[in-house]
Fold each of these.
Amino acid sequence: MTKLIFMGTPDFSATVLKGLLADDRYEILAVTTQPDRAVGRKKEIKMTPVKEVALEHNIPVYQPEKLSGSTELENLMALGADGIVTAAFGQFLPPKLLNAVDFAVNVHASLLPKYRGGAPIHYAIINGELEAGVTIMEMVKEMDAGDMVAKASTPILDSDNVGTMFEKLAVIGRDLLLETLPGYISGDIKPEPQNHDEATFSPNISPEEERIDWNKSAREIFNQIRGMYPWPVAHTILDGNRFKIYEAQLVDGQGQAGQIIEKTKKTLVVAAESGAISLTSVQPAGKPRMAIADFLNGVGRNLEVGDRFGQ
């Protein structure tokens, strides 16, 4: 039985961890995840999904704010693990830890060498990619630059967003890992180097990137909205206040960028530089998220055709 340390944080990681736990070829000695954080308006402390899974299986959990130089690092190195599996952990692994095990692989949600970094699914959708995928790669000191063990891909549909793609890719990543890890450990699968000249990067989304530029095409804005849903959520400006747009649809229409070109009791259509989008789920400043019909029946009832977003 191969003894593993697992490192990960969100639901994506939890799906991979569950797959390893269900496979009797592996023993999870410990789990490392990000510290518990305060979330929501009430700032309630919440465990990471990976921690929840670990505790359900009575697995020791380590949560260093920074792994490098921590007492947790020394404890992990003393466990005698054969290898490390990471999936959306959110921290770099110190070289001394990588050198202390026989192997360390990462389940990364992109088709490397494209979209190295912390937000690969977001950028794949925002940039209008036709497919996304998962790469199993060896861990090295440089971010997401290790040799590739295996890849698998799936189409990105117009109905997809970050949430749906995370769910799809988590299952793909889990299955790909379980399929290829034995061959990698035995040496039957030989990793292939990445072409570093083709590398692109996907850093965490900045607040500036969340704001919609209505001078872009409707397709670009549509991709931005679903590439930031369910987090961090795209926004625009309405009456000087932030106005979040959770979901929208591509529709036909023309007008000045950011201008409302159609309003009914249940629809609100806004023009882009070319084409238009119909808003379906929004959040005005100081209000909860709501369907567009509820917005138009409430705080948005005074909006008129010709009014503009983004000013």
Amino acid sequence: MAGTLEKLAKVTAQAVEAHQAGQSDKAERLFRKAAAMKPPQPQALYNLGVFLRQAGKPREALAAFNKVLTASPDHLGALVESGFARLSLSDIELAVGLFSQALEISPEDPDALAGLAQSAFQAGDWERSVAGYENLARQTGLGEEAQLIRIRALLETGRADQARSLVTMLGQARPALAGDLLKAVTRRARGGFSLNEEKLANELGISVS
């Protein structure tokens, strides 16, 4: 067994080295070699799945993650990665379920929170999306794209004042983001928010033609 683990570690290191060097075909071959070793090692299958998902092969990645989850149903990484693979395939409800399951295991996991917030938004579950982004904001802060989605979700739940405050704060802190902020608040999925676009544009220091 020790010899197998040593060989696995060596092949995995070679795969990572090839991946970092931009040798994708060689990296995939080595990750697959590691995953095919006997007895199967969940970490090797997980590594292969992560590589395949990042390489734009979500269906193949899911096959690897499913094997990991069959052996270890509570494998947090495999649940989260499976969720993102499902998102890329537009399997939104399945993605929501996977991220929710991951958060039952680790309620503060930032990747699971981000995935749930994103997938819930795509599913039209605005309340869950807002909650996810607010939890994530408290933990790690939000990037620009996540902030824009958060604003849209706030508007969809009727929290117009909170959304406007966030728009104003972001517009003042990041002037280059002003155009995207306008799009976030004016191009929404349904009605229920009355916005004076010209006034908002003036507040953000941009012009509206």
Amino acid sequence: MAAARGGRVRAPSGTRERGRGLVSAPRQDPLRDPRFFADPYPAYDRLREGCPVQRVPTGSGGHSAYLITGHPEARAAFTDPRLSKDTARFFADRPSDRDLHPAVSRTMLTSDPPAHTRQRRVATPLFTAGRVRELRPYLTRVVDGLMAAWRPGTEVDLVAELAVPLPVTVVCELLGVPESDRATLTGWSHELFDATDTHRVDAASHRIGDYLTHLVETARATPGDGPLHSLLRDCDEGGLDRDETVSLAALLLVAGHETTTQFIGNAVLALLRHPEAFDRLRRDPDLIPGALDELLRYDSPVGVATFRYSTEDLRIGGFDIPAGFPVLIAPGAANRDPAPFPHPDRLDLDRDATAHLSFGHGIHRCPGAPLARAETEIALRTLLTRFPHTRLAVPEDSLTWRRTRLTRGLTALPLRLA
């Protein structure tokens, strides 16, 4: 099948059958429907079954993008150099009413090699397997401290009392953010992912960018040997200028905790929804590291990856994408593709789910993945060990989800500890 410019889909000879042959592209943005935020998987299934690469409307004003929902197609798109992440280049000759701070809009995530290569070379050593092993005692102390006041028979909000503060504490330590500022920064970060209010997003980006610019400039003017000073030395040695250094700090702050927060919350809810899996990990917590890939696949903390665009006409998995179009890759959909993952709506801890795309793939794969896995593993192990009979404190249908297509996560997860 190939997606035609007019929004129709047909099945040419020589391509594998994945849809119904001829389908219509959605008339409205399928990623802004209120039902999508509550449960995106039926929409993902319809889109993928219709055509795993198709043109869809985005927002208002007649704009559109190519949305990739199939697993092999998404995996190929993540590594295709003809899909650029350089958003500044894409919008250079296109009028826009957006006003994002450069530190947020021009990060490593929005660049191509060689600029991307230079910035990633600085970021990657922060999250190597060896470095994360060194951090594990610290991560355990943070989790223990956050759960110190938890008692059986009481209620807690796992999101507010563990899933948010754990990664926030870790990344803020790395950046030298004072404890008194961390809650404010967390609030700005949440606003940055608000899919319903672009003005609010833009304003939050400036608050974050201005704060981090001041933080970096203050650290440069004050000699020291803390984590932020060490990061600044790495940035200098890596050839990053001031703006690139601030943008790396912004990326570490936002990406360093948002997805981990959703990972922890989604994983706990998935286990509560599947008591057999919960009991299995409760009886043998050493199985938790091996269960993380399936938990990531089952309810990905990243629904739709950040913006790409086609620099030339190309084909992804036999599907045509013309030059000059935005391209959205949906790991949340790809991870539920039944081709690589039979019975994808089932949480199966025995499944080999290592091919999931929750951390991306290729040169833009999340460098912080080892840290996110370690934080989630320690959080789950501590919860299941201390409170092995924990359950939801509210009806499941009363849970609410954040209104953003980029990440998927709960606004709160009330638990009754036991």
Amino acid sequence: MSSRSSPRDTIRLTGLTATGHHGVFDFEKREGQIFRVDAELTLDLRAAGRSDALPDTVSYVEIAELIHAAITGEPFDLIEALADHLAREILATDQRLLAAEITVHKPQAPLAQTFEDVSVTARRDRSDLPAAGDHATDSVSAAEPGPSLDPEAAPAGEVTAVLALGSNLGESAVTLASAVAALDRAEAVRVLRASPLARTSPVGGPAGQPDFHNQVLEVSTTLSPHALLACTQAIEQDHHRARGVENGEVRWGPRTLDIDIITYGRARISSITLQVPHPRAGIRGFVLVPWTWMDPRAQLDGTPVAELARQAADAKSVERLESVR
């Protein structure tokens, strides 16, 4: 009897629905319509089955958020491109994912005929992703992510992390300057360098919200990943950030201050509260473009940040403001 190969277990998200503006016609981008996405993710669930512990599996909450952000974010002309983008982006969030099958439904497609649905399906596996290490560099922030790290464990020495800041309520430029100063004053954190400010259009979320001010920082810290997260969230709260729907915050909506941990050294972290590298950083022009201003040689998951920035759908909306550091 032959031994069993690695199992091909599945996580499915079916019928995730949101309004997007994808399509080749101007009225589709202007008026928007309903899109529905089904995701089938292939991975090995044996560890999670034995441990009954969330860190041993892939968070479907994060996957659902990524799908929602793609549907409601910057538009694609073709749903083929949206499906391809989602499949690759989902695979890039976690090395434990072996393959992703994404079906994008467009039930209100502009057809003259009577129909129930139009859909496309993209199937991608890890061979479809860029090989890590294809772009060598000696930049500090360019190292490929290493093995998984205990997010509660303090590092043996200083670790360099990249943070992304955003604000679109109140005096946003003042808020970001205050947040940078607060990080530099925080125990066991030093701000090494900061990008110029950027003004960017909102991506996803409710219509009509103000433009964002964004900034990317490189910091050095001896805090554990979760301790650094607690530090950034405390600074958000000091600037009147209210997290969660129960506190009146709208997902992808306006906020006084948002601080995301993009990278933490070379670590990969997957916990209930923290995913590093940030699972959506590679598609966010409002993160990638300022990051290139700060460090033109930076890499994310082995790919130059400048290359990712050129591919980001919202990159053209990123406007450079004056340098602040």
